[in-house]
Design brief:
heterodimer, A: mainly alpha, two-stranded parallel sheet, 2 strands, disordered C terminus, B: mainly alpha, two-stranded antiparallel ribbon, flat, disordered N terminus
Protein backbone atom coordinates (compact mmCIF):
# COMPACT_ATOMS: atom_id res chain seq x y z
CA UNK A 1 0.00 0.00 0.00
CA UNK A 2 1.30 3.41 -0.89
CA UNK A 3 1.82 6.24 1.48
CA UNK A 4 -1.09 8.65 1.58
CA UNK A 5 -0.12 11.88 -0.10
CA UNK A 6 -2.02 15.16 0.07
CA UNK A 7 -3.40 14.49 -3.40
CA UNK A 8 -4.94 11.23 -2.21
CA UNK A 9 -6.58 12.85 0.74
CA UNK A 10 -7.86 15.70 -1.39
CA UNK A 11 -9.22 13.26 -3.94
CA UNK A 12 -10.89 11.22 -1.22
CA UNK A 13 -12.41 14.35 0.27
CA UNK A 14 -13.58 15.47 -3.16
CA UNK A 15 -15.11 12.11 -3.94
CA UNK A 16 -16.77 12.12 -0.55
CA UNK A 17 -18.16 15.60 -1.09
CA UNK A 18 -19.38 14.64 -4.56
CA UNK A 19 -21.18 11.66 -3.12
CA UNK A 20 -22.75 13.94 -0.57
CA UNK A 21 -24.03 16.18 -3.33
CA UNK A 22 -25.15 13.44 -5.67
CA UNK A 23 -26.89 11.40 -3.05
CA UNK A 24 -29.31 12.53 -0.42
CA UNK A 25 -27.25 11.13 2.43
CA UNK A 26 -26.30 14.34 4.11
CA UNK A 27 -25.98 12.99 7.59
CA UNK A 28 -22.61 12.90 9.23
CA UNK A 29 -22.43 9.23 10.11
CA UNK A 30 -23.36 8.04 6.62
CA UNK A 31 -20.72 10.34 5.21
CA UNK A 32 -18.17 9.00 7.63
CA UNK A 33 -19.02 5.47 6.52
CA UNK A 34 -18.69 6.43 2.87
CA UNK A 35 -15.46 8.30 3.50
CA UNK A 36 -13.87 5.11 4.73
CA UNK A 37 -15.06 3.18 1.69
CA UNK A 38 -14.11 5.83 -0.84
CA UNK A 39 -10.68 6.29 0.65
CA UNK A 40 -9.94 2.59 0.20
CA UNK A 41 -10.55 2.90 -3.51
CA UNK A 42 -8.76 6.13 -4.03
CA UNK A 43 -5.80 6.09 -1.79
CA UNK A 44 -3.92 3.83 -4.16
CA UNK A 45 -4.43 6.33 -6.94
CA UNK A 46 -1.42 8.52 -6.56
CA UNK A 47 2.16 7.70 -5.83
CA UNK A 48 3.83 9.06 -2.74
CA UNK A 49 4.96 12.63 -3.02
CA UNK A 50 8.54 13.70 -3.54
CA UNK A 51 10.93 12.71 -0.82
CA UNK A 52 13.34 15.29 0.43
CA UNK A 53 16.86 14.21 1.32
CA UNK A 54 18.19 15.30 4.74
CA UNK A 55 19.90 18.31 3.17
CA UNK A 56 16.61 19.51 1.77
CA UNK A 57 17.39 18.34 -1.80
CA UNK A 58 14.85 16.22 -3.55
CA UNK A 59 16.06 12.65 -3.95
CA UNK A 60 15.22 11.73 -7.54
CA UNK A 61 15.35 7.96 -7.06
CA UNK A 62 13.27 8.08 -3.93
CA UNK A 63 10.71 10.13 -5.79
CA UNK A 64 10.52 7.78 -8.78
CA UNK A 65 10.79 4.49 -6.87
CA UNK A 66 7.21 4.32 -5.56
CA UNK A 67 5.78 5.12 -8.98
CA UNK A 68 7.97 2.51 -10.62
CA UNK A 69 6.90 0.01 -7.97
CA UNK A 70 3.26 0.91 -8.52
CA UNK A 71 3.30 0.56 -12.29
CA UNK A 72 5.76 -2.33 -12.58
CA UNK A 73 3.03 -4.97 -12.04
CA UNK A 74 1.03 -3.37 -14.84
CA UNK A 75 4.05 -3.58 -17.14
CA UNK A 76 4.76 -7.18 -16.17
CA UNK A 77 1.17 -8.11 -16.74
CA UNK A 78 1.08 -6.32 -20.11
CA UNK A 79 4.24 -8.05 -21.32
CA UNK A 80 3.12 -11.40 -19.97
CA UNK A 81 -0.16 -11.05 -21.86
CA UNK A 82 1.62 -10.21 -25.12
CA UNK A 83 4.08 -13.06 -24.64
CA UNK A 84 1.26 -15.51 -24.03
CA UNK A 85 -0.94 -14.53 -26.94
CA UNK A 86 1.82 -13.81 -29.48
CA UNK A 87 4.57 -16.22 -28.43
CA UNK A 88 7.61 -13.91 -28.23
CA UNK A 89 10.89 -15.15 -29.63
CA UNK A 90 13.82 -14.79 -27.18
CA UNK A 91 14.92 -11.70 -29.04
CA UNK A 92 11.44 -10.15 -28.95
CA UNK A 93 11.14 -10.91 -25.27
CA UNK A 94 14.39 -9.14 -24.49
CA UNK A 95 13.49 -6.20 -26.74
CA UNK A 96 10.07 -5.89 -25.12
CA UNK A 97 11.53 -5.98 -21.61
CA UNK A 98 14.14 -3.34 -22.45
CA UNK A 99 11.56 -1.09 -24.11
CA UNK A 100 9.20 -1.66 -21.21
CA UNK A 101 11.75 -0.72 -18.57
CA UNK A 102 12.62 2.43 -20.54
CA UNK A 103 8.93 3.27 -20.78
CA UNK A 104 8.45 2.72 -17.04
CA UNK A 105 11.21 5.18 -16.25
CA UNK A 106 9.81 7.84 -18.58
CA UNK A 107 6.28 7.27 -17.34
CA UNK A 108 7.36 7.61 -13.71
CA UNK A 109 9.13 10.89 -14.51
CA UNK A 110 6.01 12.14 -16.27
CA UNK A 111 3.85 11.24 -13.28
CA UNK A 112 6.16 13.02 -10.86
CA UNK A 113 6.06 16.13 -13.02
CA UNK A 114 2.25 15.90 -13.21
CA UNK A 115 1.85 15.51 -9.46
CA UNK A 116 4.08 18.50 -8.81
CA UNK A 117 1.82 20.60 -10.99
CA UNK A 118 -1.16 19.48 -8.96
CA UNK A 119 0.34 20.20 -5.58
CA UNK A 120 -1.09 23.70 -5.38
CA UNK A 121 -4.51 22.19 -4.77
CA UNK A 122 -6.58 24.48 -6.94
CA UNK A 123 -5.63 22.50 -10.01
CA UNK A 124 -7.20 19.42 -8.45
CA UNK A 125 -10.46 21.30 -8.04
CA UNK A 126 -10.22 22.65 -11.54
CA UNK A 127 -9.57 19.22 -13.03
CA UNK A 128 -12.41 17.64 -11.04
CA UNK A 129 -14.82 20.29 -12.25
CA UNK A 130 -14.19 19.55 -15.90
CA UNK A 131 -17.02 17.74 -17.65
CA UNK A 132 -14.66 15.14 -19.08
CA UNK A 133 -13.43 12.34 -16.88
CA UNK A 134 -9.95 13.31 -15.65
CA UNK A 135 -7.09 11.49 -17.38
CA UNK A 136 -6.70 8.09 -15.81
CA UNK A 137 -3.00 7.27 -15.43
CA UNK A 138 -3.70 3.53 -15.37
CA UNK A 139 -5.59 3.66 -18.66
CA UNK A 140 -2.84 5.81 -20.14
CA UNK A 141 -0.20 3.39 -18.89
CA UNK A 142 -2.02 0.37 -20.33
CA UNK A 143 -2.31 2.06 -23.68
CA UNK A 144 1.37 2.99 -23.71
CA UNK A 145 2.43 -0.51 -22.68
CA UNK A 146 0.42 -1.85 -25.61
CA UNK A 147 2.38 0.51 -27.87
CA UNK A 148 5.62 -0.82 -26.41
CA UNK A 149 4.46 -4.34 -27.23
CA UNK A 150 3.38 -3.44 -30.76
CA UNK A 151 6.83 -2.03 -31.47
CA UNK A 152 8.40 -5.51 -31.24
CA UNK A 153 5.69 -7.59 -32.98
CA UNK A 154 5.52 -8.91 -36.53
CA UNK A 155 2.40 -8.11 -38.58
CA UNK A 156 0.85 -11.53 -37.90
CA UNK A 157 1.52 -11.19 -34.19
CA UNK A 158 0.01 -7.70 -34.20
CA UNK A 159 -3.23 -9.05 -35.66
CA UNK A 160 -3.44 -11.76 -33.00
CA UNK A 161 -2.54 -9.27 -30.28
CA UNK A 162 -5.27 -6.81 -31.30
CA UNK A 163 -7.83 -9.58 -31.52
CA UNK A 164 -6.94 -10.90 -28.05
CA UNK A 165 -6.94 -7.37 -26.60
CA UNK A 166 -10.47 -6.83 -27.95
CA UNK A 167 -11.68 -10.18 -26.56
CA UNK A 168 -10.16 -9.40 -23.20
CA UNK A 169 -11.91 -6.02 -23.08
CA UNK A 170 -15.21 -7.63 -24.10
CA UNK A 171 -14.95 -10.23 -21.33
CA UNK A 172 -14.33 -7.51 -18.75
CA UNK A 173 -17.21 -5.42 -20.10
CA UNK A 174 -19.57 -8.36 -19.88
CA UNK A 175 -18.43 -9.04 -16.31
CA UNK A 176 -19.30 -5.46 -15.30
CA UNK A 177 -22.68 -5.57 -17.02
CA UNK A 178 -23.62 -8.92 -15.49
CA UNK A 179 -22.60 -7.70 -12.05
CA UNK A 180 -24.56 -4.50 -12.52
CA UNK A 181 -27.65 -6.41 -13.50
CA UNK A 182 -27.21 -8.89 -10.66
CA UNK A 183 -27.07 -5.91 -8.31
CA UNK A 184 -30.27 -4.47 -9.79
CA UNK A 185 -31.95 -7.86 -9.60
CA UNK A 186 -31.09 -8.05 -5.91
CA UNK A 187 -33.32 -5.04 -5.31
CA UNK A 188 -35.89 -5.31 -8.08
CA UNK A 189 -36.57 -8.97 -8.76
CA UNK A 190 -35.98 -8.78 -12.50
CA UNK A 191 -37.43 -11.31 -14.90
CA UNK A 192 -35.16 -13.20 -17.32
CA UNK A 193 -36.54 -11.06 -20.12
CA UNK A 194 -35.73 -7.84 -18.24
CA UNK A 195 -32.19 -9.04 -17.59
CA UNK A 196 -31.74 -9.79 -21.26
CA UNK A 197 -33.07 -6.40 -22.35
CA UNK A 198 -30.92 -4.57 -19.84
CA UNK A 199 -27.85 -6.51 -20.99
CA UNK A 200 -28.55 -5.58 -24.58
CA UNK A 201 -29.06 -1.90 -23.78
CA UNK A 202 -26.02 -1.60 -21.56
CA UNK A 203 -23.81 -3.33 -24.11
CA UNK A 204 -25.08 -1.10 -26.91
CA UNK A 205 -24.72 2.11 -24.88
CA UNK A 206 -21.48 1.16 -23.19
CA UNK A 207 -19.28 4.10 -22.36
CA UNK A 208 -16.35 4.21 -19.95
CA UNK A 209 -17.56 7.64 -18.80
CA UNK A 210 -20.50 6.16 -16.93
CA UNK A 211 -19.42 2.58 -16.51
CA UNK A 212 -18.40 1.73 -12.96
CA UNK A 213 -14.95 0.23 -12.57
CA UNK A 214 -14.88 -3.50 -11.96
CA UNK A 215 -13.42 -3.19 -8.47
CA UNK A 216 -16.59 -1.42 -7.39
CA UNK A 217 -18.21 -4.82 -7.11
CA UNK A 218 -15.52 -6.08 -4.78
CA UNK A 219 -14.60 -3.18 -2.58
CA UNK A 220 -17.93 -1.37 -2.35
CA UNK A 221 -20.41 -4.08 -3.12
CA UNK A 222 -23.08 -2.58 -0.87
CA UNK A 223 -23.50 0.43 -3.16
CA UNK A 224 -25.45 0.73 -6.38
CA UNK A 225 -23.28 2.34 -9.05
CA UNK A 226 -24.76 5.38 -10.80
CA UNK A 227 -26.00 4.35 -14.24
CA UNK A 228 -27.98 6.74 -16.45
CA UNK A 229 -31.71 6.25 -15.75
CA UNK A 230 -32.49 6.33 -19.46
CA UNK A 231 -30.73 2.96 -19.90
CA UNK A 232 -32.61 1.30 -17.08
CA UNK A 233 -36.13 2.64 -16.53
CA UNK A 234 -37.58 1.72 -19.96
CA UNK A 235 -37.19 -1.94 -18.98
CA UNK A 236 -38.75 -1.70 -15.51
CA UNK A 237 -42.30 -2.03 -14.23
CA UNK A 238 -43.84 0.83 -12.25
CA UNK A 239 -43.12 -0.91 -8.93
CA UNK A 240 -39.53 -1.50 -9.94
CA UNK A 241 -39.16 2.13 -11.06
CA UNK A 242 -40.19 3.21 -7.58
CA UNK A 243 -37.45 1.09 -6.05
CA UNK A 244 -34.90 2.22 -8.63
CA UNK A 245 -35.59 5.89 -8.03
CA UNK A 246 -35.25 5.40 -4.27
CA UNK A 247 -31.91 3.62 -4.46
CA UNK A 248 -28.89 5.60 -3.42
CA UNK A 249 -26.46 5.56 -6.32
CA UNK A 250 -22.81 6.31 -6.01
CA UNK A 251 -20.34 7.51 -8.62
CA UNK A 252 -16.95 5.97 -8.20
CA UNK A 253 -13.55 7.42 -8.94
CA UNK A 254 -11.67 5.65 -11.69
CA UNK A 255 -8.11 6.54 -10.86
CA UNK A 256 -6.97 3.48 -9.07
CA UNK A 257 -5.18 0.24 -9.58
CA UNK A 258 -8.32 -1.66 -9.22
CA UNK A 259 -8.32 -5.31 -9.74
CA UNK A 260 -4.63 -5.89 -9.20
CA UNK A 261 -5.03 -4.47 -5.73
CA UNK A 262 -7.97 -6.64 -4.83
CA UNK A 263 -5.42 -9.43 -4.55
CA UNK A 264 -3.09 -7.20 -2.55
CA UNK A 265 -0.67 -7.16 -5.49
CA UNK A 266 0.53 -10.64 -4.57
CA UNK A 267 -1.05 -12.44 -7.47
CA UNK A 268 0.73 -10.61 -10.28
CA UNK A 269 2.35 -13.14 -12.53
CA UNK A 270 6.12 -13.53 -12.31
CA UNK A 271 6.96 -14.96 -15.72
CA UNK A 272 8.34 -11.60 -16.87
CA UNK A 273 11.28 -10.48 -14.80
CA UNK A 274 12.42 -6.91 -15.10
CA UNK A 275 15.64 -7.31 -13.15
CA UNK A 276 18.97 -5.77 -14.17
CA UNK A 277 20.31 -9.16 -15.20
CA UNK A 278 17.64 -9.36 -17.91
CA UNK A 279 18.50 -5.94 -19.17
CA UNK A 280 22.21 -6.66 -19.36
CA UNK A 281 21.47 -9.50 -21.74
CA UNK A 282 19.78 -7.06 -24.07
CA UNK A 283 22.66 -4.60 -24.18
CA UNK B 1 -26.90 16.48 -20.41
CA UNK B 2 -24.94 13.88 -18.48
CA UNK B 3 -21.78 15.90 -18.85
CA UNK B 4 -23.43 19.17 -17.83
CA UNK B 5 -24.79 17.41 -14.81
CA UNK B 6 -21.28 16.25 -13.89
CA UNK B 7 -20.01 19.82 -14.16
CA UNK B 8 -22.67 21.11 -11.79
CA UNK B 9 -22.00 18.31 -9.33
CA UNK B 10 -18.29 18.85 -9.44
CA UNK B 11 -18.57 22.57 -8.77
CA UNK B 12 -21.04 21.90 -5.99
CA UNK B 13 -18.48 19.49 -4.55
CA UNK B 14 -15.85 22.21 -4.61
CA UNK B 15 -18.23 24.44 -2.70
CA UNK B 16 -18.86 21.75 -0.10
CA UNK B 17 -15.14 21.26 0.43
CA UNK B 18 -14.52 24.98 0.75
CA UNK B 19 -17.25 25.19 3.38
CA UNK B 20 -15.87 22.18 5.22
CA UNK B 21 -12.35 23.56 5.08
CA UNK B 22 -13.52 26.86 6.52
CA UNK B 23 -14.55 24.94 9.62
CA UNK B 24 -18.11 26.23 9.55
CA UNK B 25 -19.83 23.03 10.69
CA UNK B 26 -17.34 22.26 13.44
CA UNK B 27 -19.80 22.97 16.24
CA UNK B 28 -22.46 20.85 14.50
CA UNK B 29 -20.03 17.94 14.37
CA UNK B 30 -19.41 18.20 18.10
CA UNK B 31 -23.09 18.26 19.04
CA UNK B 32 -25.12 16.09 16.80
CA UNK B 33 -28.91 16.07 16.85
CA UNK B 34 -30.54 13.01 15.34
CA UNK B 35 -33.47 14.19 13.25
CA UNK B 36 -36.32 12.16 11.70
CA UNK B 37 -34.70 12.37 8.27
CA UNK B 38 -31.29 11.33 9.54
CA UNK B 39 -32.77 8.37 11.40
CA UNK B 40 -34.55 7.21 8.23
CA UNK B 41 -31.43 7.78 6.20
CA UNK B 42 -29.32 5.67 8.56
CA UNK B 43 -31.84 2.84 8.59
CA UNK B 44 -32.26 2.75 4.82
CA UNK B 45 -28.70 3.74 3.92
CA UNK B 46 -30.03 6.93 2.35
CA UNK B 47 -32.83 5.21 0.44
CA UNK B 48 -35.90 7.04 1.80
CA UNK B 49 -38.31 5.78 4.45
CA UNK B 50 -37.95 2.24 5.75
CA UNK B 51 -41.63 1.33 5.53
CA UNK B 52 -41.93 2.72 2.01
CA UNK B 53 -38.93 0.59 1.06
CA UNK B 54 -40.54 -2.57 2.41
CA UNK B 55 -43.85 -1.79 0.73
CA UNK B 56 -42.12 -1.20 -2.58
CA UNK B 57 -40.26 -4.48 -2.04
CA UNK B 58 -43.52 -6.26 -1.33
CA UNK B 59 -45.04 -4.86 -4.53
CA UNK B 60 -42.09 -6.14 -6.55
CA UNK B 61 -42.15 -9.57 -4.87
CA UNK B 62 -45.90 -9.95 -5.38
CA UNK B 63 -45.54 -8.92 -8.98
CA UNK B 64 -42.76 -11.52 -9.42
CA UNK B 65 -44.93 -14.19 -7.79
CA UNK B 66 -47.88 -13.40 -10.03
CA UNK B 67 -45.60 -13.54 -13.05
CA UNK B 68 -44.32 -16.98 -12.06
CA UNK B 69 -47.24 -18.61 -10.26
CA UNK B 70 -50.51 -16.98 -11.35
CA UNK B 71 -51.78 -16.47 -7.77
CA UNK B 72 -55.44 -17.00 -6.92
CA UNK B 73 -57.23 -14.15 -5.06
CA UNK B 74 -57.19 -16.25 -1.88
CA UNK B 75 -53.44 -16.86 -2.13
CA UNK B 76 -52.92 -13.17 -2.80
CA UNK B 77 -54.94 -12.26 0.31
CA UNK B 78 -53.05 -14.68 2.58
CA UNK B 79 -49.68 -13.45 1.37
CA UNK B 80 -50.56 -9.80 1.88
CA UNK B 81 -51.82 -10.57 5.37
CA UNK B 82 -48.56 -12.34 6.23
CA UNK B 83 -46.54 -9.44 4.81
CA UNK B 84 -48.58 -6.97 6.84
CA UNK B 85 -47.68 -8.91 9.97
CA UNK B 86 -43.95 -8.82 9.10
CA UNK B 87 -44.11 -5.11 8.35
CA UNK B 88 -45.96 -4.39 11.57
CA UNK B 89 -43.44 -6.34 13.59
CA UNK B 90 -40.54 -4.45 12.01
CA UNK B 91 -42.38 -1.17 12.41
CA UNK B 92 -42.73 -1.81 16.14
CA UNK B 93 -39.00 -2.36 16.50
CA UNK B 94 -38.33 0.70 14.37
CA UNK B 95 -40.64 2.83 16.51
CA UNK B 96 -39.01 1.61 19.69
CA UNK B 97 -35.49 2.59 18.53
CA UNK B 98 -36.82 5.78 16.95
CA UNK B 99 -38.46 6.97 20.16
CA UNK B 100 -35.33 6.19 22.13
CA UNK B 101 -32.96 8.09 19.84
CA UNK B 102 -34.62 10.71 17.63
CA UNK B 103 -34.76 14.38 18.65
CA UNK B 104 -31.91 14.06 21.11
CA UNK B 105 -28.48 15.62 20.95
CA UNK B 106 -25.32 13.56 21.11
CA UNK B 107 -21.67 14.42 21.32
CA UNK B 108 -19.08 12.85 19.04
CA UNK B 109 -18.31 10.05 21.49
CA UNK B 110 -21.93 8.93 21.51
CA UNK B 111 -22.44 8.77 17.74
CA UNK B 112 -20.97 5.30 17.52
CA UNK B 113 -23.29 4.12 20.28
CA UNK B 114 -26.28 5.56 18.43
CA UNK B 115 -25.15 3.87 15.25
CA UNK B 116 -24.80 0.52 17.02
CA UNK B 117 -28.48 0.71 17.93
CA UNK B 118 -29.59 1.62 14.41
CA UNK B 119 -27.34 -0.77 12.48
CA UNK B 120 -29.33 -3.94 13.32
CA UNK B 121 -32.40 -2.30 11.78
CA UNK B 122 -30.44 -1.47 8.63
CA UNK B 123 -29.30 -5.10 8.42
CA UNK B 124 -32.79 -6.42 9.02
CA UNK B 125 -34.52 -4.13 6.52
CA UNK B 126 -33.78 -6.16 3.37
CA UNK B 127 -34.75 -9.36 5.22
CA UNK B 128 -38.14 -8.24 6.51
CA UNK B 129 -39.80 -10.29 3.75
CA UNK B 130 -36.87 -12.69 3.43
CA UNK B 131 -36.50 -16.41 4.06
CA UNK B 132 -37.22 -16.18 7.82
CA UNK B 133 -40.32 -14.01 7.40
CA UNK B 134 -43.89 -15.06 7.94
CA UNK B 135 -44.50 -13.96 4.37
CA UNK B 136 -42.05 -16.56 3.12
CA UNK B 137 -43.39 -19.30 5.39
CA UNK B 138 -46.98 -18.64 4.38
CA UNK B 139 -45.96 -18.49 0.74
CA UNK B 140 -44.36 -21.94 0.91
CA UNK B 141 -47.47 -23.38 2.53
CA UNK B 142 -49.97 -21.55 0.35
CA UNK B 143 -48.55 -22.22 -3.07
CA UNK B 144 -49.45 -25.47 -4.74
CA UNK B 145 -46.72 -27.93 -5.61
CA UNK B 146 -46.42 -26.83 -9.23
CA UNK B 147 -46.46 -23.15 -8.29
CA UNK B 148 -43.78 -23.67 -5.67
CA UNK B 149 -41.57 -25.60 -8.08
CA UNK B 150 -41.90 -22.74 -10.58
CA UNK B 151 -41.07 -20.18 -7.91
CA UNK B 152 -38.03 -22.13 -6.68
CA UNK B 153 -36.79 -22.52 -10.22
CA UNK B 154 -36.95 -18.77 -10.83
CA UNK B 155 -35.14 -18.07 -7.55
CA UNK B 156 -32.49 -20.64 -8.44
CA UNK B 157 -31.97 -19.03 -11.85
CA UNK B 158 -31.55 -15.61 -10.28
CA UNK B 159 -29.10 -16.93 -7.70
CA UNK B 160 -27.11 -18.79 -10.34
CA UNK B 161 -26.96 -15.67 -12.52
CA UNK B 162 -25.66 -13.67 -9.58
CA UNK B 163 -23.10 -16.32 -8.70
CA UNK B 164 -21.85 -16.64 -12.26
CA UNK B 165 -21.47 -12.85 -12.42
CA UNK B 166 -19.21 -13.07 -9.36
CA UNK B 167 -17.17 -15.83 -10.97
CA UNK B 168 -16.80 -13.66 -14.08
CA UNK B 169 -15.64 -10.86 -11.83
CA UNK B 170 -13.02 -13.10 -10.30
CA UNK B 171 -11.78 -14.35 -13.69
CA UNK B 172 -11.54 -10.78 -15.01
CA UNK B 173 -9.65 -9.66 -11.91
CA UNK B 174 -7.28 -12.57 -12.10
CA UNK B 175 -6.78 -11.95 -15.80
CA UNK B 176 -5.49 -8.47 -15.02
CA UNK B 177 -2.95 -9.82 -12.56
CA UNK B 178 -2.04 -12.97 -14.49
CA UNK B 179 -3.13 -12.49 -18.11
CA UNK B 180 -4.77 -15.31 -20.02
CA UNK B 181 -5.69 -16.04 -23.60
CA UNK B 182 -9.40 -15.83 -24.44
CA UNK B 183 -9.62 -19.62 -24.45
CA UNK B 184 -8.01 -19.90 -21.02
CA UNK B 185 -10.33 -17.23 -19.64
CA UNK B 186 -13.45 -19.02 -20.82
CA UNK B 187 -12.22 -22.42 -19.66
CA UNK B 188 -11.27 -21.08 -16.23
CA UNK B 189 -14.70 -19.49 -15.86
CA UNK B 190 -16.44 -22.75 -16.84
CA UNK B 191 -14.23 -24.84 -14.57
CA UNK B 192 -15.04 -22.70 -11.53
CA UNK B 193 -18.76 -22.65 -12.32
CA UNK B 194 -18.80 -26.42 -12.84
CA UNK B 195 -16.70 -27.42 -9.82
CA UNK B 196 -18.31 -25.10 -7.25
CA UNK B 197 -21.85 -24.38 -6.09
CA UNK B 198 -23.56 -21.07 -5.60
CA UNK B 199 -24.02 -19.99 -1.97
CA UNK B 200 -27.08 -20.76 0.04
CA UNK B 201 -27.27 -17.07 0.83
CA UNK B 202 -25.59 -14.05 -0.74
CA UNK B 203 -24.12 -11.17 1.21
CA UNK B 204 -21.32 -8.67 1.34
CA UNK B 205 -18.68 -11.39 1.19
CA UNK B 206 -19.68 -12.95 -2.14
CA UNK B 207 -16.26 -12.16 -3.60
CA UNK B 208 -14.52 -14.13 -0.86
CA UNK B 209 -17.01 -16.94 -1.21
CA UNK B 210 -15.85 -17.41 -4.81
CA UNK B 211 -12.20 -17.39 -3.70
CA UNK B 212 -12.84 -19.96 -0.97
CA UNK B 213 -14.83 -22.27 -3.23
CA UNK B 214 -12.39 -21.99 -6.13
CA UNK B 215 -9.48 -22.76 -3.78
CA UNK B 216 -10.98 -26.20 -3.15
CA UNK B 217 -10.56 -27.28 -6.77
CA UNK B 218 -7.28 -29.21 -7.11
CA UNK B 219 -4.38 -27.45 -8.83
CA UNK B 220 -4.22 -30.32 -11.30
CA UNK B 221 -7.57 -29.21 -12.74
CA UNK B 222 -6.30 -25.67 -13.17
CA UNK B 223 -3.07 -26.97 -14.65
CA UNK B 224 -5.09 -28.49 -17.51
CA UNK B 225 -6.01 -24.93 -18.53
CA UNK B 226 -3.25 -22.68 -17.25
CA UNK B 227 0.53 -22.58 -17.50
CA UNK B 228 2.60 -23.18 -14.33
CA UNK B 229 3.28 -19.46 -13.59
CA UNK B 230 -0.45 -18.78 -13.94
CA UNK B 231 -1.35 -21.65 -11.59
CA UNK B 232 1.16 -20.28 -9.07
CA UNK B 233 -0.39 -16.81 -9.33
CA UNK B 234 -3.87 -18.29 -9.02
CA UNK B 235 -2.95 -20.13 -5.85
CA UNK B 236 -1.64 -16.87 -4.35
CA UNK B 237 -4.81 -15.03 -5.37
CA UNK B 238 -7.09 -17.69 -3.91
CA UNK B 239 -5.24 -17.71 -0.60
CA UNK B 240 -6.76 -14.31 0.11
CA UNK B 241 -10.06 -16.02 0.80
CA UNK B 242 -8.71 -18.26 3.58
CA UNK B 243 -9.14 -15.60 6.26
CA UNK B 244 -12.84 -15.28 5.42
CA UNK B 245 -13.91 -18.90 5.75
CA UNK B 246 -15.21 -18.50 9.29
CA UNK B 247 -16.98 -15.22 8.52
CA UNK B 248 -18.65 -16.83 5.53
CA UNK B 249 -19.86 -19.71 7.69
CA UNK B 250 -21.27 -17.30 10.25
CA UNK B 251 -23.06 -15.34 7.53
CA UNK B 252 -24.62 -18.48 6.13
CA UNK B 253 -22.61 -18.13 2.91
CA UNK B 254 -22.17 -21.86 2.48
CA UNK B 255 -22.62 -23.90 -0.69
CA UNK B 256 -26.21 -24.51 -1.72
CA UNK B 257 -27.45 -27.81 -0.35
CA UNK B 258 -30.24 -30.08 -1.36
CA UNK B 259 -31.75 -30.76 -4.72
CA UNK B 260 -30.99 -27.92 -7.08
CA UNK B 261 -34.12 -26.86 -9.01
CA UNK B 262 -31.87 -26.05 -11.97
CA UNK B 263 -30.54 -29.61 -11.99
CA UNK B 264 -34.09 -30.98 -11.72
CA UNK B 265 -35.11 -28.82 -14.66
CA UNK B 266 -32.08 -29.92 -16.69
CA UNK B 267 -32.82 -33.60 -15.95
CA UNK B 268 -36.46 -33.14 -16.95
CA UNK B 269 -35.38 -31.49 -20.19
CA UNK B 270 -32.95 -34.36 -20.87
CA UNK B 271 -35.71 -36.92 -20.19
CA UNK B 272 -38.07 -35.11 -22.55
CA UNK B 273 -35.40 -35.08 -25.17
CA UNK B 274 -34.66 -38.83 -24.81
CA UNK B 275 -38.42 -39.61 -24.87
CA UNK B 276 -38.57 -37.69 -28.10
CA UNK B 277 -35.64 -39.67 -29.49
CA UNK B 278 -37.38 -42.95 -28.59
CA UNK B 279 -40.54 -41.80 -30.32
CA UNK B 280 -38.60 -40.89 -33.43
CA UNK B 281 -36.81 -44.27 -33.37
CA UNK B 282 -40.12 -46.07 -32.76
CA UNK B 283 -41.70 -44.30 -35.73
CA UNK B 284 -38.76 -45.19 -37.92
CA UNK B 285 -38.93 -48.90 -37.03
Amino acid sequence: MLARCPCCLTAAALALAMNAVVSRADDDAALAQEAAAVTVAIDVAFPAAAVEAPGGEVDEDARLAPIRAQYEPLLKSGLSFANRVCGFSDEQRQQAIAAGVKWLDEFARGQVAGNQNQRGGLLVFWAAAQPQRPADPVVAAESQIADVVRSVLTDDQKREYESQLAQRAAFGRQAIIDNLIAKMDEHMDLSVEQREKLTKTLLARWDENWAPPLETFVQMSQYMPAIPDEFVTPHLSDEQKRIWSGLQKVSFGRENFGMMDVFGGGAVIDDIILKDSDLKDTE
Amino acid sequence: MWRNCSRVRAWAAVLVIVVLAAGAPASRAQNFELTEDQFDSWVTNGNGSAIERIEAQLAVQMSGLKRTCALSPEQDRKLRLAAAYDIERFQARLAEVHDRLVGKTYDQNQINEVWMQIQPLQEELPRVLGPQSLFNKVMRRTLEEGQLAGFDLVQAERAQYRYQAKVQLFVTAFDRAAPMTEQQRIKLYRLIVETTRRPQRFGQYDWYYVLVQASKTPDAKYAEILEPPQVKALRRALQQGRHYEQTLQQEGCVPFEGRDPLAVEAEAAADDSSDGDELVQGDAS
